[in-house]
Design a protein that fits this description.
Strand content: 15-25%
Number of helices: 13
CATH architecture of the largest domain: 3-Layer(aba) Sandwich
């Protein structure tokens, strides 16, 4: 009597695995910066095309670039555009498909978590290891009335190859000649000071559990973790809060070339938050697997049109309409 339910259970399990295997799995890896919106897109797209599932590994932009170069994934994701040297290593032409823009925020852990203001010199000084204490005159001068402890600043940065780091170091290189000379701009750098965390998740976790910590994370991670973050003085001399509006203002000033590799840090304009960046999907123009390539192209078109509408809910700035049209034209150039 006991055999029948077991056989029935086995049949159901086989039936389920058969239907699951009928789904096409598209694999991607890379940036943690856009992970919240990409997760939302992949989930929403199952209702648009139930025959496709996305497996996305949020491992950092450096990992995303390496995996797409090695062709171990169907698409990569990066918040820093690939360098000419890296593109030259690719076995075929790689396209940069911009998706949304976001902000790196200066998050911290202080008693009472006062709202802070920071400027370029102070941020560079902290990350160069020259400003070591919260009571430093440069910080107190910007924050009259804030209760700042006489406590060491524990700088937290990324330990992995990261597009969030690319945006951060791109900003620091623009505002600090010393940083540009000593450290420079990259997805991974030799940090003058601080402790590392893996992914935006890891950095957010380190800041939350370390009294006196300060570090950089993508805006949505600070919001989700209920972490305070600073207003930053921009190139027009205004202290700006990182918001959807101030990211959009920075994106509006960006000069976007034909290959879509661009920077938008330290943007002009009084309303622009200065530490913003775009994020890209990395896709081969010539797809190896025509069936998979067709499904990937369909998804990219959906993301460029319908996915963009979900960006604002997660505090990412959607691409302007004119750029969306250019992106759709580029997607149409993918060959199956």
């Amino acid at each position: 009597m006991t055999k029948l339910p077991r056989i029935l259970g086995l049949t159901i399990a086989l039936g389920l695995s058969a239907s699951a295997s009928a789904q096409m799995m598209i694999n991607g890896a890379g940036a943690t910066f856009p992970y919240p919106i990409y997760s939302k897109w992949f989930d929403a797209y199952t209702k648009v095309d139930p025959s496709v599932r996305f497996n996305y590994q949020s491992i950092g932009s450096g990992g995303g670039q390496k995996q797409i170069l090695a062709q171990t994934v169907d698409f990569g994701a990066s918040d820093g555009p690939m360098s000419d040297d890296n593109l030259a290593k690719a076995p075929g032409k790689l396209l940069h498909i911009p998706t949304v823009a976001g902000a790196d925020v200066v998050a911290y852990n202080l008693p009472g978590n006062p709202k802070l203001k920071l400027d370029a010199d102070t941020i560079a000084g902290i990350f160069l290891g020259q400003i070591k204490k919260w009571g430093d005159p440069k910080i107190t001068a910007l924050n009259a009335g804030a209760k700042l402890p006489d406590q060491e600043i524990v700088v937290v940065h990324r330990s992995d190859g990261s597009g969030t780091t690319y945006i951060w170091t791109d900003y620091l290189s623009k505002i600090s000649p010393e940083w540009k000379t000593k450290v420079g701009t990259n997805t991974s750098v030799n940090w003058p000071t601080g402790i590392g965390g893996k992914g935006n998740e890891g950095v957010a976790g380190q800041i939350k559990q370390t009294p006196g910590a300060l570090g950089y994370v993508e805006l949505i991670y600070a919001i989700q973790n209920k972490m305070p973050y600073a207003d930053v003085k921009n190139s027009a001399g205004e202290f700006v809060t990182p918001t959807l509006e101030s990211i959009t203002a920075a994106l509006a000033t960006a000069e976007i070339p034909d290959d879509f590799r661009f920077s938008m840090t330290n943007a002009p304009g009084k309303d622009a938050y200065p530490i913003c960046g775009a994020t890209w999907l990395l896709v081969y123009q010539q797809q190896k697997d025509p069936a998979k390539g067709k499904k990937l192209v369909e998804f990219l078109k959906w993301a460029a049109k319908d996915g963009e509408k979900m960006a604002k809910d997660l505090n990412y700035a959607p691409l302007p309409d004119s750029v969306q049209q250019r992106v759709l034209t580029r997607i149409n150039e993918i060959k199956l």
